[in-house]
Every structure is written in structure tokens, then in C-alpha cells.
Design goal:
Elements: H1 2-18, H2 30-37, H3 41-53, E1 57-60, E2 64-67, E3 74-76, H4 103-110, E4 118-119, H5 132-145, H6 160-170, E5 182-185, H7 187-199, E6 205-210, H8 214-222, E7 226-233, E8 237-238, H9 240-249, E9 255-258, H10 272-284, E10 288-292, E11 317-322, E12 334-337, H11 342-353, H12 358-368, H13 372-398, E13 404-406, E14 413-417, H14 424-433, E15 436-437, E16 439-440, E17 453-457, H15 465-479
Parallel strand pairs: 4-15, 6-7, 6-9, 9-10, 10-11
Antiparallel strand pairs: 1-2, 3-13, 5-12, 7-8, 11-12, 13-14, 14-17, 16-17
Helix pairs in contact: 1-3, 2-3, 5-12, 6-12, 7-8, 7-11, 13-15, 14-15
Length: about 475
């Protein structure tokens, strides 16, 4: 029955994504589904329950299942069809063993040379979406209660109260983390760097998603590693067939780095079946699996989209996370769970940066200890859902016909592809001249596969200057 109910759920998920079943529409009754698809009632029930867990439908007592959100994964301006971005080459070539060049650093530096009117490049929300006042009050109260905090030695592995709070919050992601295994880091970037340092040596090959967050490319370059890019789709994430091919035919891969939940920049999340297959694949070939779960708390139903670490039984997954995007961009509080590399990473941390600043950890621990964090995320996610919808509509309304844009279920990033091979590096320059900062697709890969793409942030309310900036970007894109 397992394969049947999953295939049945996928059928209705595609119908919802394409708009064939609109928001608020009722699915056929369980009996009708069973008759129509020649399956048992129990198979129909399991399929509908899976759709509910995935956030496609909701059950109403004695009425059946109703579509929650009919927005397709990718919308195309000027056309009704749904696109899969043509899946940008499922082929792997030995020439993909490339080092990182200076393009990322140059682009980032150029983007900071002049004052910006509107920043659509940063993966950060508007200040009002963060609980800044509550965090400030926590810090003042803690300073009064512990006036000697800056005159005492901090705990080496991180404040115990924070690690316990992280462990409790991890339960909402379907994880059971021992606080003793949690190592507090300076954001997720340091966690990823430490993870790669623990499992690789200079010259080793690391498999990454394509496109991927440009910060990962910078870390790989700084450690003297080589990257092999694995095609990644905006619906199902990294291609496991392509990854398996690379493992079997392209030499030793030492580690895989991926974002299975709300990937940056695509916003996609891997199906759970793909996650278990990925874990088994890496365990079979003794490849370290490094998971970046930075956006996991943005998921509408986080318990139904568990991280890879939730399935890790052998300690082969190094789990990395932070609160930079979800709680406060300024605190830079992250953590990792090192699995079988825990002791090595702990020593690397001590060698690289010694102890972590304690007061910020105490502030975060105090906020996460109760229900304040979950209430904050619920409010933030509701606002981001509105802003994603509004930004998609603005892009489709102002960008050239044929423009494609992802419609992720969570997070604050959209991936846009311009028609006719329009170059977003040129658009980047023209936008800077107008006081608008964007992220061109070229910095999300070592290869020239995404020069017609760009990443935009929907972390700011879509009104006023932001709305005007989208109109300007649309005009500039049409003029390319």
C-alpha cells in the first residue's frame, strides 16, 4: 500500500500545484477516490493524510478534505503553464570539478560601494518582524541580575541553558537532541566551516547543491577544497540520481553539503523518502553528510518536514543551524551536532576561536526557554506568507513576459529566471545605479548555469519603496 498511497498523494499534489484544484476546493470523497483510482479506502485515507501533513489540504469534520493553498511551485509571467525551470542539466561532467573564483567576492564588494535605497539581496527580514524589544529587555534584566558576567570565564562548549533550550526546540522538528552533543557556534557559517574542517583535507572533493548558497562556495574555497555541483530542483531538492552517479563514477567524494529544508536560493524542501535515501547513500559510501537547517524553523508544519538528522542512527550527519534568520540577525548564535565527529569538532572550535561570548547566549536561552519563540515564529511565518504572495504577484505583473518565479511554501527568498537568456549580471549593475541591490544568479554556482536568474528577498513588506523597486527592476529587465 505504501507506494500506492504516496503515488496517489503525488497525483493530487500536482493537481493543486498546477491550479487544477484551487484554494478552498474540496477533494473527491474517500469513497470516490477509491473507486476512481481503484484503490482501497485505507489507501485513499493514507494519501489524504499525507497531503494534510505536507500542507496541501486540511480536513474538515464530516465535510472531507479541502485545498489550503493552490499557489503552484513556479509561476510564469504571461502564461498559465507551470514550469519546472527545465531542471538545468541532470548531467554530471568531470569538468564540474572546479575551484571557486573571485566572482562572488567581487560582486558582493560592488554591491556595497554605494548607498542603497532598497536592498532586495539580503536574506533578512524587516526589523519589525524580529522580537528586538523583547531581546533588549532580556539583556538589560540579565545584566542587572549578573553584573559580573563579563568578568567571569564562559563555558567552553556553550551556555548549558541555551543548549537545553535548543534541544527542546528541536523536538518541534522531529529531533531528539542531547544537550551535551550541542556545540554553540558563531552563526551557521562557522558551524559549516568546522564541519568541513573535521571531515576533509585540502584538495578533497565536496558535493554541493546547484544552485547553492554562495557562502558555502566561499567556505569551500577558504579551506582549499573542490566543489562538484549536483543539479537541484525547486520542487524536490538535490537530484539523488545525479549524486549517486557522481559517487560511483567521478572519484572519491569526501562530504555532501545540503539544505534539505527551505533551500537557499530555491526555497525547496526534500520529500522524506528522498531524505532517507540520501542518508543510506552516504552511509553506504562512507561520505559525511553536512546538513544546513538554517531555514527549518520557517516551515509551516516543521514536525512534518524533519531534518536529515532525525533519521541519523550512525552519527554520519553533522547538523548545523542558527537563529540569524529566524530570531535576530545581530546575535550570530548558531550551533551544530557533530555526530561521530563531535570530539574532533569540539577541539577544532577551541583551536579556532576559544570560548563563545556568554551574554548573547543567555539572552537567546531566556527567550527560547518558554513559548515566546514558537509564538514569534508563528507570527513571522504568517507575515512572510503574505509577503511571498505579494512579491510573486508584483514580479509577474512588472517583469517581462516569460519570467519564471518559484513559489516556496516557507522562507523569505524567491528564485527568478528571466526569459530569452537575459543576463542578470547586467541587471545587477543597472539596478545598483538605481539604488537597488539584488543577488545575480551567477554567484550561486561556479559555472555559468544561472546567469539568467536572480534571488530576491521578500523579507520586507511589499509596499512603498519595495513596490517601486520591483517596478524599476521589471522595467530594467524588459530593457535588457
Amino acid at each position: 500500500m505504501a507506494k500506492k498511497y504516496r503515488a496517489l498523494a503525488e497525483h493530487y499534489a500536482k493537481a493543486i500545484a498546477s491550479g487544477s484544484l484551487g484554494k478552498g476546493e474540496r477533494l473527491p470523497s474517500l469513497r470516490d477516490i477509491a473507486v476512481l483510482h481503484r484503490v482501497s479506502i485505507s489507501t485513499a485515507v493514507e494519501a489524504c493524510r499525507l497531503l494534510e501533513r505536507q500542507g496541501y489540504v486540511e480536513a474538515k469534520s464530516r465535510a472531507g478534505y479541502f485545498v489550503i493553498d493552490a499557489m503552484p511551485l513556479v509561476k510564469r509571467a504571461g502564461a498559465a503553464a507551470v514550469s519546472d525551470f527545465d531542471n538545468a542539466n541532470e548531467r554530471i561532467d568531470p569538468a564540474d570539478y572546479v575551484g571557486v573564483h573571485e566572482r562572488i567576492s567581487v560582486t558582493l564588494a560592488r554591491g556595497t560601494r554605494r548607498p542603497m535605497k532598497v536592498d532586495l539581496a539580503g536574506a533578512v527580514c524587516a526589523p519589525e518582524l524580529y522580537p528586538g524589544a523583547a531581546l533588549r529587555d532580556n539583556m538589560l534584566r540579565l545584566l542587572r541580575a549578573r553584573p559580573r558576567v563579563y568578568g567571569t570565564h564562559p563555558q567552553r562548549e556553550g551556555v548549558t541553558k541555551l543548549r537545553e533550550a535548543i534541544a527542546r526546540c528541536s523536538v518541534s522538528r522531529g529531533m531528539h537532541a542531547d544537550p551535551e552533543t550541542i556545540l554553540v557556534t558563531h552563526g551557521c557559517s562557522e558551524a559549516l566551516s568546522l564541519a568541513l574542517m573535521a571531515v576533509t583535507s585540502p584538495g578533497d572533493v565536496v558535493a554541493i547543491e546547484s544552485p547553492t548558497y554562495f557562502g558555502i562556495l566561499q567556505i569551500i574555497e577558504s579551506l582549499g577544497l573542490k566543489a562538484i555541483e549536483i543539479p537541484t530542483r525547486p520542487d524536490t531538492g538535490i537530484s539523488l540520481d545525479a549524486l549517486e552517479f557522481a559517487i560511483n563514477h567521478m572519484g572519491r567524494i569526501q562530504a555532501v553539503v545540503c539544505m534539505p529544508s527551505v533551500q537557499n536560493p530555491l526555497g525547496c524542501s526534500m520529500p522524506e523518502t528522498a531524505k532517507t535515501r540520501m542518508i543510506e547513500l552516504c552511509e553506504k559510501h562512507n561520505i559525511a553528510l553536512i546538513e544546513d537547517d538554517t531555514y527549518g524553523f520557517f516551515l509551516p508544519n516543521p514536525a512534518y518536514s524533519r531534518p536529515l538528522k532525525a533519521w541519523d542512527k550512525k552519527g554520519n550527519v553533522i547538523y548545523c543551524n542558527s537563529l540569524n534568520k529566524s530570531l535576530s540577525p545581530g546575535l550570530r548564535v548558531g550551533w551544530l551536532i557533530g555526530g561521530k565527529w563531535h570530539k574532533k569538532i569540539e577541539m577544532l572550535m577551541y583551536a579556532v576561536s576559544r570560548h563563545r561570548e556568554e551574554m548573547l547566549q543567555l539572552v537567546v536561552a531566556d527567550f527560547m526557554a518558554g513559548s515566546a519563540f514558537s509564538r514569534h515564529m508563528k507570527r513571522m511565518n504568517a507575515l512572510l506568507k503574505q509577503q511571498r504572495t505579494q512579491l510573486v504577484e508584483a514580479i509577474l505583473g512588472h517583469f517581462p513576459a516569460g519570467t519564471e518565479v518559484t513559489c516556496p511554501d516557507a522562507g523569505l527568498l524567491l528564485w527568478v529566471r528571466l526569459p530569452d537568456g537575459k543576463n542578470t549580471d547586467i541587471l545587477f549593475d543597472k539596478a545598483l545605479a538605481e539604488g537597488i541591490r539584488i543577488c545575480p544568479g551567477s554567484i550561486f554556482s561556479n559555472m555559468d548555469k544561472f546567469n539568467d536568474c536572480l534571488r530576491l528577498s521578500c523579507g520586507m513588506p511589499i509596499k512603498g519603496r519595495v513596490e517601486s523597486a520591483i517596478r524599476t527592476l521589471g522595467r530594467l529587465a524588459r530593457e535588457l
